[in-house]
Specification:
This protein is α/β, with parallel strands linked by helices. The protein has two domains: 122 residues, Rhodanese-like domain (Oxidized Rhodanese, domain 1); 120 residues, Rhodanese-like domain (Oxidized Rhodanese, domain 1), CATH 3.40.250.10. 29% of the residues lie in helices and 12% in strands. It has ten helices and ten strands. Strands 1-5-4-2-3 form a five-stranded parallel sheet. Strands 6-10-9-7-8 form a five-stranded parallel sheet. Helix 4 links the parallel strand 4 and strand 5. Helix 4 crosses helix 9.
């Protein structure tokens, strides 16, 4: 299974016994949208709802921190996602949240995970069927582990400012990156981590919401100043759209990519961390 699949492909494969379809829509508070209610009102047949707002470490002071492997495995088992499943994710979100679900599933041990190109919008645009309510499913065993190489802590990112071993790429808008637009979260400074590069996640998509082709994705990274031969750490506001960049690099065969999960929510809230507003 490819990591990026079309609506046509899913329509032909969705009845296979090992296919699991997941609505991973997640919305920022400013959107004033209820992802679960929208899922219940209409979703791809057979899809379960992955509540990304609940898949967090509630003991962390930092917003949207990754959950423990045990918590993640428990939630996946409850959704009927288990070992051997071919999982297809989609969303109907401005922040392309299926990529966050893709990152977590890969981080915690799932091997066959794909994103539906264009998400629910594309599925509906092609006139394909929806269903309402909750489909029935049985629990399946999900063996969880965690690949520490795919995560970076604030301390590791701080140390990298000195070593320069990894490139840090920020997925936020250029206005937020430069500090020209104030952060909406209270107590968080404007600007970016010194030395980081800026590639707004939307630059990886075509106007219809589907991903650019592989050369187009690679060109977007190169244009942003990223050396694709060197390792990358992705960052954003709270670890969601940074995963879009990680997925984009995966599509072009680059997997030496890690996530700074705390992102600007953590860094910008710490007065001791250096901050910059100039463009690199």
């Amino acid at each position: 299974m490819d990591s990026l699949v079309t609506a046509e492909w899913l329509a032909t494969e969705m009845d296979a016994s090992d296919i699991r379809i997941v609505d991973a829509s997640y919305h920022l508070a400013a959107a004033r949208r209820d992802a679960r209610a929208e899922y219940e009102a209409g979703h791809i047949p057979g899809a379960v709802f992955m509540n990304l707002a609940d898949l967090v470490d509630t003991s962390s002071p930092v917003e949207n921190t990754l959950p423990s492997p045990a918590k993640f495995a428990s939630r996946m088992q409850g959704l009927g996602l288990g070992d051997g499943s071919r999982i297809v994710l989609y969303d109907d979100s401005a922040v392309k949240s299926a990529a966050r679900a893709w990152f977590m599933l890969r981080l915690f041990g799932a091997n066959q995970v794909a994103i539906l190109d264009g998400g629910l919008k594309r599925w509906k645009a092609e006139g394909r069927a929806l269903e309402t309510g909750h489909p029935s499913h049985r629990e399946r065993h999900f063996t969880a582990w965690s690949d520490a190489r795919r995560q970076r802590s604030k301390a590791e990112v701080r140390a990298n400012l000195e070593s320069g071993a990894e490139q840090l790429v920020d997925a936020r808008s250029t206005a937020r990156f430069r500090g020209a637009e104030l952060e909406t979260r209270a107590g968080i400074a404007s600007g970016h981590i010194p030395g980081s590069l800026n590639l707004p996640y939307g630059n990886l998509f075509k106007p219809d919401g589907t991903f650019k082709d592989r050369p187009g994705i690679a060109a977007a990274f190169v244009k942003a100043g990223i050396d694709l031969s060197r390792p990358v750490v992705t960052s954003c506001g709270s670890g969601v759209t940074a995963c879009v960049l990680a997925f984009g690099m995966h599509l072009i065969g680059k997997d030496d990519v890690s996530l700074y999960d705390g992102s600007w929510s953590e860094w910008g809230a710490d007065p001791a961390m250096p901050k910059a507003t100039e463009l690199v």
